[in-house]
Each structure stands twice: as C-alpha cells, then as structure tokens.
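Reopening this one. Same input as before:
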Amino acid sequence: MNIYRGCSHGCIYCDSRSRCYGFTHDFEDIEVKENALELLESALRRKRKKCMIGTGAMTDPYIPLETKLNYTRRAMELVYMYGFGMTVHTKSDRVLHDLDLICKINEKTKFVVQTTLTTADEALCKKIEPNVSTTSERVQILKIMKSRGVPTIVWLCPILPFINDTEQNINGIMDYCAEAGVYGIINFGMGMTLREGNREYFYTQLDKLFPGLKEKYIKTYGGKYEVSSPNAAQLHELFVKRCKEHGIICDNNKLFAYLHEFPQGQQFEQLKLF
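Same output, byte for byte:
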C-alpha cells in the first residue's frame, strides 16, 4: 500500500518520477489518500488468510507530512489489531517514532524494516539524497532495530555510474551492514534505471551538482533504460564476497520470499494462545 503519492526527499535518481506513473503535477506536491485507512481496515477485516502488509514501494511512508498526519502509524495500529505482519521501506529516522508499535507487531507476528543505502560518503549522500536521513543515521536505525529483535533488509541501489560505483563505496556500505547485523541485502545490479520523467530530472541535477557529467552519460548510454556501471562485474563480485563473509543473504528471490512470508506453524500458534 502507498498512503502518500509523491515525495519530498529530493533523491536525484528517483524512478517514481517516471511519467509512466501518471503524475500530472510536481512530484513534491504530495497527495494524501484520505480514505486509505478505511480501505485498509476493510481489506484486513475481510481477508481470510493472514499475510504481510508492505508500504514504501513508491513513496516513503515517513515523509515529513507523516509527523502531522500519522497515517502510517494508524495503519500499523490496524495491522496490529487484526494480527497481520508488516514491512516498511524508508530512508527516514522518523520510523523510530513508531518503534514501540513496530516491536509489538514483531512480537505478535513479524515486522521487517527496510532501508536504502547508496553511499558510505556522508557529503555525497547529502548531494544525491538531500532531504533524507544521512547514511550514518539510517545505519543507526538498523542497529536499533537489531537490538530490539526486528529484522532488517538493506537495498543497495542505485549505483550511479561515475558517482558512487567504486570498490571503496561498496566496501564502506558492506562494513555498515555487517556492523548493523542486517538480515539481507537486495541488489539489482551495479547500476540504475533511467526513463522519461526521471531521466530529465536526473540530468538537471547532474548539471547542478556534477557539471559535465550529463554529457558523459549521454555519450556512454544514449537513451538506454538500464544504465550499468563500467565496473559492474567487479563490484558485484565484491558485493557477493562480502555478503558471504558476514553471513548476509544476497539472493533477491530468497529475500522477497522472506518479505512476503507470514509466520506460520508452532511458534505462531503459541503466540495466539497468549
């Protein structure tokens, strides 16, 4: 589910800006799905089989507007009340405001916190993701969740060619993930996607932040949708190697299965008794 439509994080690479999603106004002009909670409760009440409820695929559930409206928290309260599991994907430490509820859901069923890490360089982070919690702040989220028994998954993407596609960066992110004890890392390859809508915004930001780099992108990739780093093969090999060293799952199929898997069996039956 996506309670909000649009985002104010300002990430220069965001695919959700793509025209295929039908935005007819500025992406930063947030739409609120005012009946989302009623629709959610209706769906949860009618659902015969318990499952995982996810949010954050298109719009971060913890944009600043959430502090005022508390729609994400209210959705969590419904998920808890009806005995479902949940996962959120966020780049904001506002998620910690709901730590109490996250832990309650995780104790009753299952809660997974997901975040994206793109760079270990704090200065670069503030350039390419200007309005989100910094990398170190997101790592702190992961550590806190781990300390409370809440599983975490990191999305290592996107990797922007000629910007963060270095071994130093991959190693830095992997150090963070190992330190935070993450369950798994999702990666779709060492690159990014560009299509109508997000390509134009990305190139405009390149002109502002990395003068001359837009021309290099155009010369190297033309109008391609999938834009892979020239270092993709060696970076992926390094990524897999570091995951194996620290026992971090990096098989996307396994991780998506885990995100969708609602806890069943003896443990869940015991929980229901109490």
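So the earlier flakiness isn't reproducible anymore. For the record, The radius of gyration is 19 Å.
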